[in-house]
Amino acid sequence: MMTLVESKAEFEITKRSMEDESEIKDAVFYNVTVPFVETFVLKNPGDFCISRTIDGAYYLSIAANKKDKKGEVRVVNLRVDDLEKEVGIPGMMFARADTLPQLIYQLKHENMDILSGVLEEKLTMNRLLGPQVTAMHNILQTGKSVKVQRKLSQDTASPIYIGEMKFSDGKIKEGVFEEFPGGGQNPTELKTFFEKLVNSKSLRGKNLPIRIPIGAIMNPPTLIYENNKLEVGCNLEDFLFFHQNRLDLTQRIKICSSAVRVLSELHHADIYHGASQLEHFYVDFVGFKNEDIKNYELVFNGASGLIREGKSDNSVSVIDYDSTAPEVAFTRKLTKESGVFNLGRLFEQILKPDLFKSYSESNEGSPESLTEMRRLISRATHPNPTRRPTMHGIVMMIRDVLLKAPKSNSHICMVHFDQFTN
Q1: What is the dotted CATH code of the domain comprising 21-128?
Q2: Phi (first) and psi of residue 410, to 5 degrees
Q3: Gene3D superfamilies this protein is in (predicted)?
């Protein structure tokens, strides 16, 4: 019988027959996505691993010997199916065996030349990597090593807490741990979890106004963020609710200004979100303006849903007709223009108290800045996408609106993300 010998994060296959598939289970990544494996597991030519995706499919993923044009490792992902009394790779008669471990052994020691020829890709299978390898990216399998210090949310469905753990650099540091709702039982939430992880790695180091996790726990699915020692932030929807009586019109317009600046900055990097909502923004406390006024900063809340122009699939199947641009109902595609439409709807939600108040009064009684914001919203939500302004155009327009805004008396002050100090 074949056995697996664990050596740190690697597993080596011995040259014995493999009859019991359970012997390979410790080397399998369960309930993950293929992009997660490509991003965080396989790093050198010849590395390979086995994963079972959220949808229940098994994959053999192999890092090819030849890198792509960017110098990154190319990964070949082969689906392994149950074929009545055996397992195998569809369309490859030589890739058949009684069990998954036997299939892996046969490919590695007997059929690599055939597999390379069929795929027209030079492949080797040198190291079978197991789940522990992701620790180098601060992605832990469980939270057993995390020392919980205090809970920030009493919501048992998605708890948030401050914890302390040892990171891959050997240092013990605090972090904010945000557990995903449902503990990983909801496939949609689980896919969002992995999407945030994968997208955040490609955006790290670019100094974009995006809240990016510094690590994760696989079970239960939990994202780890840097801990702001002064005050823990929250998403924009909660911020507006908690501070609805502390925000005046000028600060609400500044929130609108911060939101469009964030999206404009992403557009400059050829990244956009075609259907952003309040929940997609995060408000962080960044210090005191003076002893009475707190400064807050707005950033995009994670990389989930962001579309990289020319690299990401921008198609959608489910549409919110109340907030999504009308053309999306026909094209089923999210674009920069549909993102501008959603921004207009976002402005309406941010300015809701002031807009309601103005509707109950005569137009002559409305502040000029609010009247200008209503015109701006009308332009952003124009039914014809070609008639909508660009994100940068809205940045310029809202800057002029702020010059007409009344002096703020709020104890809350919104400041813009500064990419040179973050």
Answers
A1: 3.30.505.10
A2: -80, 150
A3: Transferase(Phosphotransferase) domain 1
